[in-house]
Design goal:
Two copies of one chain form a homodimer.
Chain A: E1 3-5, E2 13-15, H1 18-27, E3 35-39, E4 45-52, E5 59-66, E6 76-80, H2 86-99, E7 103-108, H3 119-132, E8 140-141, E9 145-146, H4 147-153, E10 158-162, E11 171-172, H5 173-176, E12 183-187, H6 195-203, E13 207-210, H7 218-233
Parallel strand pairs in A: 1-3, 6-7, 6-12, 7-8, 7-9, 10-12, 10-13, 11-13
Antiparallel strand pairs in A: 2-5, 3-4, 4-5
Helix pairs in contact in A: 2-3, 2-7
């Protein structure tokens, strides 16, 4: 069954956006009475049927609402350096949303590429991924944070910094993180965090962790970190 | 340091392929005496220097050889359905190689898209990924196997089938797979395996497993399975 995205829905009638209406009526050729499911990005999963198949403002009558659909028992926030190849960052976005994440922050590190996120594309990727994987909660993509600003601001839960430097002892994620806890994980740029950044993070309560023996690209490290927390919670 | 790929190397002098020679001499502008590292795909990591900077047949004198570089204590074979969007399959290839895999087999299931792998592109992606992640062993991409043929042929180690059907009890990977063991994992097409395929696999000794609560695309499920085994082994 196709899933539609209708943010800020309330009441028993939902009007789809122009994009979603067009997709529903013109592309999928749905019509009056067709049953569809909707997510609102705030935890609600609706079932309903089309009452007005307007290709610009399609109307749905809600017949069933599940609140808190797919609510996880942990929250995950990943701060990840932008990547030279923007497509790789977008892959990370899509895959981390599919697996399970709550907040993604572009993390501007000393060695980060100066490659701003395309916010509109990124927003569409996130919506498309929650629809595809039927997630009622839409993860938040925050504004970019400078490294120091990030570590000063986000300090609650189990805070971890992944890095490859041999100068600092690192541990495996599952020896510091356990099921049900909130996590913040930092993923560095291709050239890794600087020693100064690692020290700064440690001073702010971040624990250095590794992602195993393999040398991973930034976006792969991001997925590996996201999946580690997911795996521990299953 | 840049890594070059030189299969079937032996002796103290290695001649790079035309592609690698051009990249080394023309693109990276390396010259006589430049120190480089090479992997041969069979477990050797060489260090050497350029003795003849020929842009078609660059010659390297080997000064150090590490055999069995990065050898893992487990072998992982993933049989994964082709995907309609070929780029998604190629992304799985790249990421699974980075994380750690030994054999990848395109698995032709009842509901698989008829989308043949581009073997030449796939081969280049694998080589590029082992160079990037400094892996001395090159994973093998086998010919496609029909589902029945695959489950008849590959039966050793911990054999698992990931699926979403509610008709069969499933368990988490780490309750059947433990560190150091060889694993075979089946990943189905977007429409999932048929019940007949699941029964057939169970009869051949495959254990139904799940990858957690999230509904994952084929390529994401492949990465999640690959990373689960990797994570357990760290």
């Amino acid at each position: 069954m196709h899933i539609f995205y209708a943010p800020e829905s309330s009441g028993n009638t939902i009007t789809l956006s122009e994009t979603e209406s067009r997709h529903c009526i013109r592309v999928l050729r749905m019509t009056t009475g067709s049953v569809i499911k909707l997510i609102d990005g705030s935890g609600n999963l609706y079932t309903g049927y089309i009452s007005d198949p307007d290709p610009l403002r399609c109307k749905i009558i809600v017949t069933k609402t599940i609140t808190g659909f797919g609510k996880r028992n942990y929250r995950l926030h990943i701060g990840i350096s932008p990547i030279k190849n923007r497509e790789r960052f977008e892959w990370f976005l899509e895959k981390s949303v599919e697996i399970g994440i709550d907040i993604i922050t572009p993390l501007i590190c000393h060695r980060s590429e100066k490659n701003p996120i395309n916010e509109s594309r990124a927003g569409n990727i996130i919506i498309s991924a929650i629809k595809q994987s039927v997630k009622a909660y839409k993860p938040e993509l925050t504004k970019p944070y400078l490294f120091d600003e990030f570590t000063d601001t986000f300090n609650s839960g189990v805070c971890m910094i992944t890095h490859c430097s041999k100068a600092f002892e690192r541990t495996k994620i599952d020896s510091v993180y356990s099921r049900g806890r909130n996590a913040v994980i930092l993923i560095g740029p291709e050239g890794d965090f600087t020693d100064e950044e690692i020290i700064r993070a440690i001073e702010r309560g971040y624990i250095p962790v590794h992602l195993g023996e393999s040398r991973l690209r930034t976006e792969t490290a991001g997925i590996a970190a996201c999946h580690s927390v997911y795996f521990i919670n299953q």
